[in-house]
């Protein structure tokens, strides 16, 4: 049995190396690659992904998993070996259903689509991107049919990012969100004047923005010996091993929060990967449990820490040192309110904590409509703008500020967006548990002490890697399934105080 | 037959993609990778190289090459297909002799050795690097024995970088070099005072150095849409396709020529790869003919262009604009002499055109001694310092300025160094032919017109990729085998004028 297990681990380790090479090529593609390199890079990504896929769907892996089934059954559910075998089996069964040629085609098409999206966004012209999006959609529909589904075509795609989660569950969650948050946004929209954030819209030296972001990242415990930050049009985190977890940010010279909170957000993702038990390295368990679980960490650090009053009690003097001219006269309270100002706006990644989820909801609805062919690609910009109007009361003046703003669809990532809201919800649920375990959390933040929080997250969440699903983690850590209560209560409490309702 | 050819090309294209992925990982390793990433990177490089090697030594490729032998024989020697089959057969026969496990071991060991070298050089302590060097040597001796040799163990290693070249030929060349250049260095050493370059040792703003390097790179015709420059401890050029050819440089804040000429040098390499016929892309022919051929291009742009009087007649005003304080009072003549000043010094990459070759010669001799076990690794620093004394009349004060200065041995690259001198020699031989074809070359340089030169190089050399060996190219382009005449005449003419001998 040990021999089978070692054979399996060796094969998985090789595949892991290839997938991490793919990640390096992807990182370079989005940070440093000159435009001429795009065609060859698309080919290289397709080739490596194809090889990794071929190696993973090898009959030998199926045989090994079959022979290890009984052995795994005799081990504790949460043991390294049982988890490795269980999660690998889950991945394997899915991967076997998809032809390698389709996987290559998807990678190839999405690399081209990414370049097309980048140019189309620069020129704010959706029609240039439309044929690439259509191609991505067609391929992903084919993909979904290969994986199979009973309820809706969105299910197998969602499952890629959020294992075990069903579209119907997400719909239920968004019903609550819609019921609770759309009226909240309307209420607040009538009181926008109560909170001012004009002081955040000044000119901020880019290097100084970079430096204060790095300072905040260090404060959280992000390890720069095992990571680094670069710039890219769309911030992201990527991992080449638990000891090389990188983040990117983008800097707007005239709006301070963009880069600062992008950094905190990506740091949240990166801390998760840096905190995975080293013993899981080189296995498929060496990643976050799901995108929702991952997003819970980015949003926790970005919002529950970075947009909290205690954080700014500590950090405001540092910010004033970095930008004396812009922030000298800004009080902690003014800053706290400013960075939390709610206002319907065009760009998801800059949206406040409330409207953010409505951005997600509309993407979820549009993706479903596109995949179910209720919405033709060419009508997408119009449908986008209509939903913006319905949920947020505004419509973008052009495609760059609207339908072209996100990278995801260029990558062929349909089913990805809802995980952002699942992350927000889980983060709030986790945070209620953390506050019970660490009652003086606010005081610690006020003193710039964040390692207690990081230690807690490492112990209860990060360490496990991909062993559990999001719902398993919710039960294990908080004692209950994933639920919206904490999140809704958090939003109502925080913004009720700020906007007097 | 066409089916066989297509099958071969498809296989080679896949291998090409993997090798280019290896190149991306290597580029990142030397430019941006955080130190924590080293162990995983070593593993990833080993895995990918192993896969590429396995795919290349596949029996099927041998069978295809066998079946295509006759077809190739009926084609012109320089046709794309005949060349592809010929060069692939050469590579294949060599690769089949080396076990894949050894290839992986070498990649793995050299990735670790590179990290060790970087640290050892920082601390200037050779003993920290010695065990890694020993390991690299042992592996490369094993490698050489796999490839086989009759004359000396250096032959198969040299052949890796300079196909067809023999150690005995290199020895003959270095006999001429030693006979002609050692006395020249001695003559000039007594007249060092004739040329002043103190004005090059001032403080130069790093950003301004970066900018002027980019300006010079643009002038040569280097295409930044298909390339980019980054910083690394040791400058290099790497290629991920003919449309993504990158260079690196390093900047010394107190010595202007370091970054400037490193950029011109790497640009020379990069122009070669950017000039390969696009039809050769995705095949093993899409690279320079050999390292010597490659070095001829880097040295041609660095020295025959960048250290020429006509170049500085054009470029001096631009330099004075970039560094008015430092260069306002420096005449073209003073600049020309300054950047060509001959003086025995410690660091190869900063050496003048004459002593440079003595740096190479001693490395060639030391490598031979190490590989033939006439010199134990632990005695290397002493042997290094002794040879420095013998050929250059100086000895380095520490390992960082001596035996640890170059990256090559950390990569396990033994047999690489002589290609630098072969490049110098070939560059001079080429340049004599170019001057015959473009009689007004100097005038063009004086007007900042370098595209005539680049066009010539593209037409006569770059376009061919790896089709020919260095000696074949020499005959084809200059009408004669590789020979030292032009180079020695060039050095004597240029430096005889400068130092009055």
Automatic annotation (TrEMBL), chains A, B:
Its keywords, alphabetically, are: Carboxypeptidase, Hydrolase, Metal-binding, Metalloprotease, Protease, Zinc
Source taxonomy: Bacteria, Pseudomonadati, Planctomycetota, Candidatus Brocadiia, Candidatus Brocadiales
Q: What is this protein called?
A: Metal-dependent carboxypeptidase
Question: Molecular function (GO) terms listed?
Answer: metal ion binding; metallocarboxypeptidase activity
Family to which this protein belongs: Belongs to the peptidase M32 family.
The biological process GO terms on file are: proteolysis
One Pfam family name is Peptidase_M32
> Which InterPro entries does UniProt cross-reference here?
Peptidase_M32_Taq
Tell me how the cofactor is bound. Answer: Binds 1 zinc ion per subunit.
The answer to whether UniProt assigns keyword Metal-binding to this entry is yes
* Catalytic residues, chain numbering: 266
Native source organism of the sequence: Candidatus Brocadia fulgida
Which reaction(s) does the protein catalyse, per the Swiss-Prot or TrEMBL entry? Release of a C-terminal amino acid with broad specificity, except for -Pro
Q: Does the keyword Metal-binding apply?
A: yes
**Its domain of life?**
Bacteria
Which amino acid positions bind Zn(2+), per UniProt?
265, 269, 295
EC number assigned by the record: 3.4.17.19
| Cofactor list | Zn(2+)
Q: What does this protein do?
A: Broad specificity carboxypetidase that releases amino acids sequentially from the C-terminus, including neutral, aromatic, polar and basic residues.
Matches recorded under PROSITE patterns: PEPTIDASE_M32
């Amino acid at each position: 049995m040990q021999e089978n297990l070692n054979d399996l681990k060796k094969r998985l380790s090789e595949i892991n190396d290839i997938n991490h090479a793919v990640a390096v090529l992807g990182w370079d593609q989005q940070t440093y690659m000159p435009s001429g390199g795009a065609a060859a890079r698309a080919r290289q990504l397709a080739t490596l992904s194809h090889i990794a896929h071929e190696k993973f769907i090898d009959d030998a892996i199926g045989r090994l998993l079959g022979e290890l089934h009984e052995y795994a059954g005799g081990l504790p559910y949460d043991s390294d070996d049982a988890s490795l075998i269980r999660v690998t089996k889950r991945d394997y069964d899915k991967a076997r259903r998809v032809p390698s040629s389709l996987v290559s085609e998807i990678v190839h098409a999405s690399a081209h689509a990414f370049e097309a999206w980048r140019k189309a966004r620069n020129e704010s012209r959706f029609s240039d991107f439309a044929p690439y999006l259509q191609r991505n959609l067609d391929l992903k529909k084919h993909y979904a049919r290969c994986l199979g589904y009973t309820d809706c075509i969105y299910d197998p795609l969602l499952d890629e990012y959020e294992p075990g989660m069903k579209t119907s569950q997400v719909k239920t969650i968004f019903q609550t969100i819609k019921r609770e948050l759309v009226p909240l946004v309307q209420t607040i929209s009538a009181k926008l004047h109560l909170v001012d954030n004009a002081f955040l819209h000044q000119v901020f030296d880019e290097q100084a923005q970079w430096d204060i972001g790095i300072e905040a990242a260090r404060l959280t415990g992000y390890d720069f010996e095992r990571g680094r930050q670069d710039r890219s049009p769309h911030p992201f985190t990527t991992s080449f091993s638990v000891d090389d977890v990188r983040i990117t940010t983008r800097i707007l010279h005239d709006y301070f929060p963009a880069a600062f909170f992008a950094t905190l957000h990506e740091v949240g993702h990166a801390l998760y990967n840096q905190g995975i038990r080293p013993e899981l390295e080189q296995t498929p368990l060496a990643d976050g449990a799901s995108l929702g679980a991952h997003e819970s960490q980015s949003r926790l650090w970005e919002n529950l820490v970075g947009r909290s009053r205690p954080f700014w009690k500590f950090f405001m003097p540092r910010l004033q040192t970095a930008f004396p001219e812009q922030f000298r006269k800004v009080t902690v309270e003014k800053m706290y309110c400013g960075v939390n100002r709610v206002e319907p706006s065009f760009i998801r990644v800059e949206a406040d904590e409330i409207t953010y989820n409505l951005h997600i909801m509309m993407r979820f609805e549009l993706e479903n409509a596109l995949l179910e062919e209720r919405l033709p690609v060419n009508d997408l910009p119009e449908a986008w703008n209509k939903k913006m109007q319905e949920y947020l009361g505004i419509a973008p003046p052009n495609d760059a500020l609207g339908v072209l703003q996100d990278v995801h669809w260029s990558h062929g990532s349909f089913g990805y967006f809802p995980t952002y809201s699942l992350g927000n919800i889980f983060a709030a649920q986790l945070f209620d548990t953390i506050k019970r375990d660490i009652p003086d959390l606010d005081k610690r933040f006020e003193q710039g002490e964040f390692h207690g929080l990081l230690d807690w997250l490492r112990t209860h969440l990060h360490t496990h890697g991909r062993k559990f699903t999001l719902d398993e983690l919710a039960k294990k850590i908080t004692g209950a399934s994933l639920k919206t209560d904490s999140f809704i209560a958090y939003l109502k409490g925080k913004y009720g105080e700020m906007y007097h309702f």
